[in-house]
Write a structure and sequence with these properties.
Blueprint (H helix, E strand, L loop, with lengths): L2 H21 L1 H27 L8 H29 L4 H24 L12 H33 L5
Helix pairs in contact: 1-2, 1-3, 2-3, 2-5, 3-4, 4-5
Length: 166
């Protein structure tokens, strides 16, 4: 799939979310909240498989779960953007803009986290062992603590911002 078709699909999902929210307001809101809960459960599974991963015998479940989480986020975020724009743009535009920015940040952090899992180690003749140890430490802090924590906070904000305000 080339980049233009991905961009077109992204905007088609945004329009589908807007249309669904316009005609089926409450079921669409619940679907949006439950998609955030499902993404949080996927993130929890990723954290568990990442913590108990053996570097000598890597398992495929962590990488596969990362791919599934990225695809699910790529489908759920534009739908939620369409719902946010339809629900709040006329009455509360600041909330709609905050939700859209939060959702785009969530998608970009999910993508960044999945990309960091593919960073290859540098050859031994390029860097020393001390520098390699520092690089591995920074990778583990970024990939295993900082980015998943930021994603968890954004998922919590997603659930909070789409709560029922009746």
């Amino acid at each position: 799939m080339n980049e233009y078709s991905r961009i077109g699909l992204f905007f088609a999902i945004v329009v589908a979310g807007w249309f669904a929210s316009r005609h089926y307001r409450e079921p669409t809101r619940r679907t949006t909240v439950w998609s955030a809960v499902a993404l949080a459960a996927g993130l929890g599974y990723l954290v568990v498989t990442g913590l108990y991963k053996d570097s000598a015998r890597p398992t495929i479940s962590h990488g596969l779960a990362g791919h599934i989480l990225l695809i699910a986020a790529w489908l759920a975020v534009p739908f939620a953007i369409g719902v946010a724009v339809e629900r709040h743009f006329t009455q509360r535009p600041a909330l709609a803009v905050a939700q859209v920015l939060m959702l785009l940040l969530l998608l970009s952090l999910t993508l960044l986290t999945s990309i960091t899992g593919y960073l290859p180690p540098l050859p031994n003749d390029v860097i020393s062992d001390e520098v390699r140890a520092v690089m591995i430490n920074r990778f583990e802090i970024l990939h295993m603590i900082v980015l998943p924590s930021a994603i968890a906070v954004l998922l919590a904000f997603w659930c909070w911002s789409f709560r029922n305000r009746t």
